[in-house]
Amino acid sequence: VARPRPFMCLSGVRLLSGADGYSFPSNHAAAVFMAAVILSSVFGRYSIFLYLFALIICLSRIYIGVHFPLDVLNGAVIGALIGYILVRVGRKAAGPAARE
């Protein structure tokens, strides 16, 4: 979506990192939440740490001035859905042994 980044359209936003292109959705948020979902399905006991790490990455994108909160939220939802679908497809392809 061709939405400008916060530092491009709001005054007073201090950019702490370089960024180009458009803001919506956040690719970082999508990638890190997709990874958290997939890794949580394999390493379930570390799920809380994986999701906390993903949340910190998402909040950092807002803090450094390159994304609006809804950019990050939508990126996280997209990534989590893709991760969930990939886990389901992977388990189905692996057969009954993968479900145990």
Describe the structure in brief.
The chain is 63% helix and 0% strand. The chain is mainly α. The N and C termini lie far apart (41 Å).
Rg, rounded, reads 16 Å
Morphology: elongated
Strand-and-helix sequence, N→C?
Answer: HHHH
Question: Pairing-aware structural class of the strands and helices?
Answer: mainly alpha
Number of extended strands: 0
Can you count the helices? Answer: 4
Determine the mean pLDDT. Answer: 84
Strand content: under 5%
Instruction: List segments where confidence is low: pLDDT < 50 over at least 5 consecutive residues.
Output: none
Distance between the termini: 41 Å
The profile of the biggest β sheet is: none
Helical content, roughly?
55-70%
Tell me which oligomeric state these chains represent: single chain
Give the SSE map:
Layout: H1 6-9, H2 27-42, H3 47-63, H4 69-94
Helix pairs in contact: 2-3, 2-4, 3-4
List the keywords.
mainly alpha
Description:
With 100 residues, the chain is mostly helical. Helix content is 63%, strand content 0%. The protein has four helices and no strands.
